Amino acid sequence: MGTPKLMPFFILVIFHTMLSSGSGSNSDHIYPSGKGIRAAYFPSSNSFSPSSIDTQYFTHIYYAFLQPESTTYKLNVTEFDQARIPEFIKALRGKNPPVTTLLSMGGGGNNATVFALMVSTQATREVFINSTIQVARKYGFQGVDLDWEFPKDALEMSNLALLYKEWRKALDNEARVCGKPRLLLTSAVYYASKFTFYGGPRSYPAGAISKYLDWASPMCFDYHGSWENFTGMNAALDDSKSNISTRYGIGSWIEAGVPSKKLVMGLPLYGRTWTLKDSKVNGIGAPALGMGPGDGVLVYHQILHFNNRTNATVVYDTESASYYSYSGSSWVGYDGVRSAYMKVRFAKSLGLGGYFFWALGQDNEWAISKQASNAWKY
């Protein structure tokens, strides 16, 4: 995650019955009111103010993102973050209902090589882990989150498992020493448990994820984009022509052995755009020449503006539980209010721990966020 990027498939459990080891009680901020996880990422570079967040639709908010330094592997808290984080924490502490805040590391713009080097030895993992705890406690976060996009081979996946194990142990120990509730430990992951792009076949360490994380967050979006020469859905629930779908991805995680309640499903608040090769051929899979409006990406409120301004034709596709719209040679695939309802109900039907959005500031007057929250609660 991060600023949506034009790359294949890209862009990230829990319920009230789950228990977590470690000192202190986490129940209040892991399982608010027994309603599961309704989360969203707050991109720190966004002009959207944290004081504008309507917390009635969320239980957990992630601050995104900090990066490890390339030589020390300690978190680099920039001057910008030193000002932005206190603003974020202060704004959310005053909200009713309250939300749990997590500090996220990595994102779509991360340096994957730095993460690979960081996890490669016990010593460097320890430096990183201790830094995340120190920064999270200093600013008042209640959890830490890793969004490494993406480990490139089996060795890096194995080292990731060690990181999860050692991180959780450190969090448990720190909570015992300081007498505070343990910091949450979560991780955004690829939409499927196995993948092959940018390297050979590899799988996430499902056993370590199940044992050490509070939840994992499959990023169920960026299935298609203008890097392809045909139109496609950004976050298809189902796709009869391929395995690039949320149903397949979530199913792969459950099949790998991760409990459904430890999966928090990702939803996008943005869409992908193309320029059609022929404006008269405008369905899903239509030939395309490259990126469309917004340099290939429009967030939801921009999509509605595009639809109204251009008098676009809007189509809801039942199979993918997604929308697409087109006007002239411009084509957009995206999620709307109906999409959110269908996908959240899907998540709940499988007993998932909840869902999350990328990203705050992209909705239209909380329309999708509200529908998703209602679909989850009721």
From TrEMBL:
GO biological process: carbohydrate metabolic process; chitin catabolic process
Gene3D superfamilies attached to this UniProt entry: 3.10.50.10, Glycosidases
GO MF term list: chitin binding; chitinase activity
Residues annotated as signal peptide: 1-24
UniProt-listed Pfam families: Glyco_hydro_18
Gene Ontology CC annotations of this record: extracellular region
Name listed for the protein in its UniProt record: GH18 domain-containing protein
UniProt organism field: Malus baccata
